[in-house]
Structure formats: structure tokens, C-alpha cells
Amino acid sequence: MKNLLIGTAALAMMAGAALAESHSVVRMGTEGAYPPYNFINDAGEVDGFERELGDELCARAELTCEWVTNEWDSIIPNLVSGNYDTIIAGMSITDERKEQIDFTQNYTQPDPSAYVALAGAEVDLAGGVIAAQTGTIQASYVAEHGATLVEFSSPDETVAAVRNGEADAVLADKAYLDPIVAESSDVAFTGEDVLIGGGIGLGIRKSDTELKAKFDAAIQSMKDDGSLNALIEKWEIGETF
Amino acid sequence: MFSYCTDPATLDGLTWLSCYLTTGKHLSIYWSVGTVLLLLAITAPVALMFGFGGAAAARSRFAPLSWLGKAYIAVVRGVPDIAFFLFFVIALDQGFEWLRHQVKCPDWDQPIRQGNDFVVCAEAKLPLGNAAQWVHETYGFMLAVLTFSIVFGAFAANVLFGAMRAVPRAQLETAEAYGMTPRQTFWRILVPQMWVFALPGLSNLWMVLIKATPLLFLLGVEDIVYWARELGGAKTARFTDYPHPDWRMWYFFALLVFYLAFTRVSEIVLDRIMKRLTHGQATTGGEAQRKAA
């Protein structure tokens, strides 16, 4: 066992003999299951609002970027340990997350979250069973407001839970739910939208101040020339700046 | 893939299905079947090596070595797999990077732990930050193999430890009486005879290992269960040319068939191995074989 470990380590060291420049490639970590923000398209590649946004930001900041997908559950630990350099996965800026990682300035307005239930169903949003994705702002909102929370690891499963009756309603970003409601007759929006979170930003390691500054500047330049608004409208993300 | 697939909305029936099943995204799931099989093919022998080492160490008459073997078996078996996969792998990765950091960047003046962050110099990153995606994937895969091997190695060690004790004492005594050294007794008498006792336990482990591959996704390696969930989820027409409702049931059904077929083949192979191992052994099975012959 010891020999194997030492062998692996030695191999790894030889493999890394080439010199690396700091951030010559920026790895963009995303979930790939949250359209329109990010999803895997038919060709098997990352696509969506954040793909276009990220590519444009990288071009403006003159960075070479590469896209990687990671499960939502472990997306922060893997950033912190350096498996990729940014989280660009529809992640709202919250104080709780700020304790672990830094965020760039927001690239979307605080997006309203909405409830979706079976069409025509009377749902008690304050005390019923509400589905939300684990570790999201919606999940903590439901937990804090007295309803019974059922958590799922992917966004798709939260909607499926409403369809099969496991939950009375699902709470998620409105931009995610919109196309689903528009194309199906069995589910519909219900109740009032709720405003939670402080908009979405890129998650970046706290120690990576240089990268944060670059992305901040790039986002600002996209805000200034209106190209960010154009992207938001194209992907129907919500309010423009 | 096919030339008629340019506008899937106009297709139906089998033509639609043939286009749907050959999208780039579906090729990923076929590819991931290969990943899973490769993982099993590498992990099984490596885990067996870990197990053999652990069991041999636990039996050792040299006390510290025996403690080491027993501690390995007890600790790894006691920690839940998911915790192991979330924390141990990250720790292992950071351990490698820390070692490289010590070697490559001796004059680095900043702390490596900055709050939550683990910061090593760019030359020490593993794989290097500018490496191609396939290098990252291979590295993640190797980490997965190592972690699976350590976890399943501990269980295998326990099985082998038990199997070594199940070999009739009379066999070893006879070896001693012939003047064999402990080392000779171990390699020539004990090891060849223990497999027949170990195989039922090891075959259980193999079956569990086959089904443990979804843990891979915690390491960023995309396995078949991940793709089945991703592909099966309901898709709206805005984001794909092939919109469909929740089809996870069908995808998981396909997985069920895959796993059943795979375990069935494993059973047949294991049965054969069992037959060969039983041959000439001083066990009930061996005796039955002798009478039948």
C-alpha cells in the first residue's frame, strides 16, 4: 500500500514537470442541470445563459476558460479545494455562502422564486409539503417559513415530485420553472412570487482576489455596454439592469 | 448522427428514436458504460491486493504491523462510504498537492491554508491548472480507483483474514512437521487453500462494488446512473430538439437490465471459479467433487 502511494506520488510529480503559469486556464464549474442558466445540450456540451455569459466574460478578461460539471451538493467543497476556479451555476449571493467563498458582483437581478403546483390544486403554501433543491436559497426559505421541506439533489427531481404527488408544490427560480409551466398543462404557478437572494454571482475562492477583480471588471463592462441585458433577455432570465 | 436527423420535430416513431438515441448526449452515456467497466476491471484486482496486504499484515506476528493491518480494516470498514468519498478523496488530492508544493515551491511565503481555501503554488497543482480536460478526468478517475480500492480492500482484508483462519489447522501443522518455515507454510499451504473459503465473501464484495459506481459522481466522474437521471429528466422544447416528459423510469429500467445481466454473468463466472478452487480441497465441496468424478 505504501509503495503504491509513493509510486503514485512520484508519477504525479513527474507528470507535472512542465511549468504552469497562474491561471493560464480558468476552469468554470457548473451544474449542467438548470436551464436556462446552465444545462447540457443535445450535443452533450454545457449550454445556456451562463455558458454564453461565461465565454463572453472570459473573452473580455482575456482568459482561457474550460467548462466542467460538478454535482450541486459538492460544488462548493470542490471549488475550495481547487478542482476548478469559479462556480457559475445560478448560485445566488447569500451571507451564508459568503462565509465560505467570495462572489463577484451580481450578473442577474435578484430573481423572483415561484411556486408551482398541479394545475387546479388548492395548496397550503404556508403549511404544506414543498419541494426544493438541496442547499439552495429556496430550500432554506421553505425551512424557515414553517412549511414541510422535502429536498432533492437535482432541480428536475423537485418538479417530478410535484407531478407524482410527493410534494404539494415546488419552490424554485422563476426562470427555471417558466418554460416547464409554459409547455405542460398539468402544472401551473400558484401563490405569490417570493424575492429571496441577492442576485447571482460567480463564486470564487477567497484567496483568489486577482481572478475576482478580473471577472468583476468584465461583468461591469458588460453591464455598461448593455450586452448583459441582451443576454438576460435572450435567455429570459428576468429583470434587466 | 444520421443525415435525416436535421429536423427531429418532423420525425416520429423509430426514426425519431434512432435520432434521439444517437445525440451527443446519449453517446456520453454509452461512453460512461465503458468508464464503469474499466473502473471495475482496475479496481477489483487492486482492491484484492489491498485486501491481501491488509489480511497478511493483520496476521503478522510482528505486533506493530498487525496493529496497522487491524486498524486499516477497522477504520475503513467503520466509516460510511459517502463520507469517505466526500472527504478522504479531497484530503488525498490535497496531500499529493502538498507534497508537490514542498518539493517545487520551497520559497513560497504564504500559508497553504487560508481560511477555507487550500492554496498551493501553480506548479504544484494536480493536475496542472492548464492541463486539458481529459487529464483532469483521468486524474479524477485514478483517484476514484484508489479510493474504491482502499474502501473495498478493507472489506476484502476482513474476508481474507477470516478465510486464512478457516484453513484447517491440521494442514499447517503438517507443513510445520515437514520442516517448512512460517513463510513457506504461508505461501505454499495457507494461501492456495484459503481462496475457497474467501470466495463467497469476495463475490459478495464484487456484487456490491458493481453497484457502488454512482459514488463516482461525487468525484466528478460521470457514471451511467448520473446520465440516466440527466437524460431521463423531463425536457422542455426550448432547450432541446427532443422534448419529452419524465422518462427516468425507462432509463432506470435499462439500468436494471444492464445490472441484472452483469451480475448474472458475474455469478456464472464466479461459480466456475468456485468449482476449480474446490477441486482437491479438504472441504465438503471438494469431497463431493471427488466422489462424483
From TrEMBL, chain A:
The keyword Signal applies. Keywords: Signal. It comes from the Bacteria. This is Lysine-arginine-ornithine-binding periplasmic protein. The keyword Signal applies. The gene is argT. InterPro entries: Solute-binding_3/MltF_N. It comes from Tropicibacter naphthalenivorans. PANTHER family: AMINO-ACID-BINDING PROTEIN YXEM-RELATED (PTHR35936:SF19), MEMBRANE-BOUND LYTIC MUREIN TRANSGLYCOSYLASE F (PTHR35936). Residues 25-239 form the Solute-binding protein family 3/N-terminal domain. Residues 1-20 form the signal peptide.
UniProtKB/TrEMBL annotation, chain B:
One of its GO terms (cellular component) is plasma membrane. This is Arginine ABC transporter permease protein ArtQ. It is found in: Cell membrane. GO terms for biological process: transmembrane transport. CDD domains: TM_PBP2 (cd06261). Residues 33-270 form the ABC transmembrane type-1 domain. Belongs to the binding-protein-dependent transport system permease family. Its main location: membrane. It comes from Tropicibacter naphthalenivorans. Keywords: Membrane, Transmembrane, Transmembrane helix, Transport. The keyword Transmembrane applies. InterPro entries: ABC_transp_permease_HisMQ, MetI-like, MetI-like_sf. It is a multi-pass membrane protein. The chain crosses the membrane at residues 29-50, 71-92, 139-164, 185-209, 249-270.
